[in-house]
Amino acid sequence: MGKSVLIKKAALAPNRRSRSHGSAPKPTASPLAAGLRVFDRVAKELDLQTDDRLKLLNVGRTKLFELLKAVDPRLDVDQQDRLGYFLAIYEYSGRLLGVPGAWLRAPNTAPLFAGKPPLEKMLAGRMENLIDTLTYLKGVYGGWA
């Protein structure tokens, strides 16, 4: 073999020396970090402004951006619940209509929404609004609403 081929193979080979000396593996993201990345992607898809994201998660501006960068973010129980409800609402609305953003933004004649888009109710900032929206969707998806 030529010298250049050996150099290329050596460059592509794993660095065994660093493993044998106990170098720490790269940290993996926590499930909460993954959930926040999904939240961020969905919020962008829905064209939500930063203030809307803050209301949905009940966090401050600085905290939101710190959370999105963190490998192991910390949220209080209320914030975790809000994240979970929001993602579940998005999922259920997608199952019902195939295009979750359209349902969230379209006026809804159900008494719960009073002719307004579900997203408007969700952005009012109260946890109850997220719970009510998810309960409504589960009812529609399950056939008992």
Radius of gyration: 22 Å
Give the N-terminus to C-terminus distance in angstroms. Answer: 73 Å
Encode the helix/strand succession as letters: HHHHHHHHH
pLDDT average, as an integer? 82
Helix content bin: 55-70%
**How large a portion of the residues is in β-strands, by DSSP E?**
under 5%
Coarse shape? globular
Structural class: mainly alpha
Strand count, sense and closure of the main sheet?
A: none
Quick overview:
The protein is mostly helical. It has 9 helices and no strands.
Your description of this structure?
- The protein is mainly alpha-helical and about 140 residues long.
- The protein has one domain (about 30-140).
- The longest helix has 21 residues, at about 75-95.
- Residues about 5-20 have low confidence and may be disordered.
- It is globular.
- The chain has helices spanning about 5-10, 15-20, 30-45, 50-55, 60-70, 75-95, 100-105, 120, 125-140.
